[in-house]
Amino acid sequence: MSEFFKKIELKKSICKIRLINWDDMDGLVKIKENKQLHEERFKLQDEDKGRYLGAFFNDNVIGFVLISLQNKQDVMNYTNNEHCADLVDLFIHYLFRNLQIGSTMVNLSEEICRYLQIPYL
Questions:
Q1: The domain containing residue 13 runs over which residues?
Q2: Residue among 86, 32, 80, 83 nearest 55 (CA)
């Protein structure tokens, strides 16, 4: 899925958005201290039930979002009858907010859904 990697100019540095992998766990736990949550999301990605995107600044995790590719009937009633993606837990570290990183991650998530031919709302 390398065609979905994005770069955002942030002053003189670059923010990269890419799929998060198990090697990124230490950085994730620094910004959201819930290792079990991140492990569950990695498993979803490994099982092709989700995509876990991360935003990185100088190789440090500064944000993430999970694209859930499975219906959760207890969460969104409008997705109960068809396969539909949901964005879960979009987070950007407070020092990097208002720089369009979150917006770019949402747009990238939509691109991934279109690529996978999965409806999204």
A1: 2-116
A2: 32
89 assigned to some structural domain? yes
Does residue 121 lie within any of the structural domains? no
Mean pLDDT across 21-39: 95
Position 84 in a domain:
yes
Domain count, the chain: 1
85 close to 117: Cβ distance less than 8 angstroms: no
**Is 75 part of any domain?**
yes
Structure confidence at residue 72 as a pLDDT band (50, 70, 90): low
Q: At 12, is the secondary structure helix, strand, or coil?
A: coil
Contact 26, 59 (CB under 8 A): no
Element (H, E) at 17: strand 13-19
Q: Which residue has the tokens 């990097």?
A: 96
Token digits of residue 96: 């990097």
**Which CATH number characterizes residue 8's domain?**
3.40.630.30
More confident of the two residues 61 and 70? 61
pLDDT tens track for 40-60: 999 999 998 899 999 999 999
